[in-house]
Design goal:
2 domains; binds tryptophanyl-5'AMP; mainly alpha; 7% strand; Rossmann fold; two-stranded parallel sheet; 326 residues; three-stranded parallel beta sheet; 13 helices
């Protein structure tokens, strides 16, 4: 069985971009892969966090994993900081990375705003991500498009170490959805939907009430030509809504274009509200059941044990290759 690893940062509520780009894949893959899903709490402290909130968010993301259908009996669910191998491998990989390649990472450039001095953690973020992935001999990494460059760096680091020290790491591959790999903001379809955008109406969170979902979709930015057609360059708003509709309903974009031939944006948006509410309501209900439950704590503790059992021999192998220890 191929091994799958992915992670999500515990920063607030997740949105439909996180779900359609990543979490939906988590659920699909667990049927015939060995899956490890991490809440990357150490990544989130690259920017200051309130300690109490961070702990709660970590539990909430794990609860959301389970609410969307990740089954802790099939998949491993755990918090990154509870497996020491992440930090150990992080250092070893740090010593095999270059400041040049890290300063080319677009997420770093965006987050540091080109400042001369930025938090070191932000700069090193992609190396810790590579450590997460390589620690488990991962074959497949299901993520959204925005993580492509980080996966490339992970592969580069793995190949570099393998060439220098002999076969040490499995070289992983990214896995991206057809519809959903890059969900755009509802108020500005040229920007990625994000957890941190100030306008609440730019995104739909997995736990939003139906009334909020309706408002955000009905107000979403489109264009004035009134034709429901997929055309990213000229009709980014409608194209984004078509992708979301397709991802939630399972209908192809071509099918949707046919279904809505001759109808206006109003009807299309109304139907999209229904499809979205139907998809998210069970997630919300299940989340409220799992949040604060013993089931959640037990699943995460068990996940830590199982993750550690996979990570320990890998760390041992890596240390041997590098001549670390006695
Ligand atoms: P994070 O927490 O920002 O996002 C979690 C997942 O959601 C995807 N995503 C999107 N997909 C489609 N459309 C969007 N608008 C959108 N926004 C976010 C992300 O691509 C991601 O898959 N660096 C990672 C966390 C991480 C990780 C890892 C992932 C740490 N270590 C190891 C995989 C493997 C991140 O910040 O994701």
């Amino acid at each position: 069985m191929k091994r799958v690893f992915s992670g999500v940062q515990p920063t607030g509520n997740l949105h439909i971009g996180n779900y359609l780009g990543a979490l939906k894949q988590f659920v699909e893959l667990q049927e015939d892969h060995e899956c490890i899903y991490c809440v990357v709490d150490m990544h989130s402290i690259t920017v200051p966090q309130d300690p109490k909130e961070l702990k709660q968010h970590t539990l909430d993301i794990a609860a959301l994993y389970m609410a969307v259908g990740v089954d802790p009996k099939k998949s491993i669910i755990f918090a990154q900081s509870t497996v020491p191998g992440h930090a150990e491998l992080n250092w070893i990989l740090t010593c095999n990375s270059y400041t040049g390649e890290l300063s080319r990472m677009t997420q770093y450039k965006q987050k540091s705003h080109g400042a001369e001095s930025a938090p070191t953690g932000l700069f090193m973020y992609p190396v810790l991500m590579a450590a997460d992935i390589l620690l488990y001999d991962t074959d497949i990494v299901p993520v959204g498009n925005d993580q492509k460059q980080h996966i490339e760096l992970t592969r580069d680091l793995a190949i570099r170490v393998n060439n220098k020290y002999g076969e040490t790491f499995v070289v992983p591959e990214g896995r991206f959805m057809k519809a959903g790999a890059r969900v755009m903001a509802l108020d500005d379809p040229t920007a990625k939907m994000s957890k941190s955008a100030p306008n609440e109406m730019s995104r739909i969170s997995l736990l939003d009430e139906p009334s909020k979902i309706k408002k955000a979709i009905m107000r979403s930015t489109t264009d004035s030509d009134g034709v429901i057609r997929f055309d990213i360059d000229n009709k980014p708003g409608i194209s984004n809504l078509l992708s979301i509709y397709s991802a939630f309903s399972g209908k192809t974009i071509e099918q949707l274009e046919k279904d809505y031939e001759g109808s206006g944006y109003g009807q299309f948006k109304k139907d999209l509200v229904e499809v979205t509410v139907d998809a998210l309501s069970p997630i919300r209900e299940r989340f409220l059941e799992i949040r604060g439950s013993q089931e959640l704590i037990d699943a995460m503790k068990n996940g830590t044990e199982r993750a550690n059992a996979i990570a320990e021999p890998v760390i041992k192998r890596v240390k041997d290759r590098f001549g670390l220890g006695i």
